[in-house]
Amino acid sequence: MSEPTAGGIPKLRVSGLHVTYRSREGQDVEAVRGVDFTIANKPDVGEIVVFLGPSGCGKSTILKAVAGLLPPTRGEVLVDGEPVTGVGRDRGMVFQAYTSFAWLTVRKNVEYGLRLQGIPKPQRREEAEKYLEAVGLKDFADKYPKALSGGMKQRVAIARTLINKPKLLLMDEPFGALDPQTRWGMQGLLIDITRREDNTILFVTHDVSEAVYLADTVFVLAPRPTRVLHRVEVPHFERRDLALKSTDPFRDCEKQLLDLLYAKLPPQG
Ligand SMILES: Nc1ncnc2c1ncn2[C@@H]1O[C@H](COP(=O)(O)OP(=O)(O)OP(=O)(O)O)[C@@H](O)[C@H]1O
Ligand SMILES: [Mg+2]
């Protein structure tokens, strides 16, 4: 499934992506079978694209291929028209499992990317302070990750990725470990960030409600070996707040996605 883009080089183009893992025992596990999609470059308008699919279907595998962490078995990934051959600063990734440096404090973890870029300390501090505040961890800035809960660690990982302002942000079930209230807060933060920084976010979830709340576009994925079954444009909700979740248009969209997700699949060629 590929969509024409209205002029210009697309932000992301994935064509004929196949990924087969070889296990230690020498067995092949086909995770991704022919994934094609295009995400247009929309300057000045952020976009959140959600990948919705059942557990084990191949969602993390697709994100890792886009991140440049996993070479495709076949197919191609182009970011801004350039083939992806490895990781790059233009792409930021928040992993499904928490990843931060255990030997650095929360603040230094968040500042890390800016330090790599050679940003002077006072500026780094100021920037880090903003992101720590945004993820609700200001009071924990001088703690080490081991002193934090799973959800707090995940928020450190989110802040340390956001601070680099990547134009393409890859987020793999980033809010899975958060309680509902913190999760809603983080979803709101993400929407604000895309609008402000006009970046493209690829967001993986298996939570239908989260998909409708966040997404401009949803790709519904097939079970493993995965491929894109449907592309759904989510209606533009003027106000995104908690009350939205109990409105008819929101519930209708949830139902549409659930039906697509659990529909009987046609046989694969
Ligand atoms: N390193 C690996 N070696 C062998 N098989 C793997 C490897 N990584 C993933 N797989 C297999 O590939 C398939 C897709 O895995 P992937 O992690 O992409 O799924 P997912 O959609 O992200 O699942 P979840 O929602 O549970 O995170 C699974 O069947 C998994 O067992
Ligand atoms: Mg996964």
Radius of gyration based on Cα positions:
19 Å
Secondary-structure element pattern, one letter each: EEEHEEEHHHEHEHEEH
What's the end-to-end separation, in Å? 14 Å
Q: Major sheet, described briefly?
A: 6 strands, mixed
**Count of individual helical segments:** 7
- Strands, total number: 10
Descriptive account of the structure:
This protein is α/β, with parallel strands linked by helices and 269 residues long. It has a domain at 96-165. It contains 7 helices and 10 strands. The protein has helices spanning 59-67, 106-116, 121-134, 150-162, 180-197, 208-214, 248-262; strands at 12-22, 28-39, 47-52, 74-79, 82-83, 91-94, 168-172, 200-205, 217-221, 228-233. Strands 6-7-8-3-9-10 form a 6-stranded mixed sheet, with helices on both faces. Strands 2-1-4-5 form a 4-stranded antiparallel sheet, with helices on one face. The chain is globular, with a radius of gyration of 19 Å. The two termini are 14 Å apart. It binds adenosine-5'-triphosphate and magnesium ion.
